[in-house]
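Inputs:
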Amino acid sequence: GAVVSQHPSRVICKSGTSVKIECRSLDFQATTMFWYRQFPKKSLMLMATSNEGSKATYEQGVEKDKFLINHASLTLSTLTVTSAHPEDSSFYICSARDVGTEAFFGQGTRLTVV
Amino acid sequence: QQQVKQSPQSLIVQKGGISIINCAYENTAFDYFPWYQQFPGKGPALLIAIRPDVSEKKEGRFTISFNKSAKQFSLHIMDSQPGDSATYFCAAKADEDSNYQLIWGAGTKLIIKP
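Outputs:
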């Protein structure tokens, strides 16, 4: 299957700083990318959907100014957690798809805010 | 209407046994039903998927059974192995949804005892 590379796999940052997570489609064009958040022992919670070159569509309750999503190219999307706080600590997962294909998932990023 | 209900929450099966996880849905517009496997600290990976025009789909030791009238579908893992120990998620999607939004079940933690 197609490969989605997510980086970093783990990151620890200090409270108040910003952290950027990258999601790359390695062998296909990611016309649509999705960002999820997963709490321990819970299901995936969709945060936002982005189409290449367009602004992301955020799910209800997700602060767009806190979770900045950029999908500027057909192979790269980034999620920036701004002014991170301990409650933002979580497992973040991206997924990507091209038109007519299934969605492929990255390996996830464990964010810890201290 | 948009929910996918998954059970059980956790499951312990002896090596060589059959693992069965069930999901139910309400939205009759759903027409794509994937199952994902997730190992700790990793993103989910597509295991097998079915559309409602068939009642069963088999890939190796993994089988999806689909009951359209009951709006239920299940994952069967035959000859379960310790390496199958993971969390399994069912999901559903309506093809008319151009954003490809997956509706996720709550997950089942499967433990295969050697």
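Remarks. Chain A is about 0% helix and 55% strand. The two ends of chain A are 36 Å apart (CA to CA).
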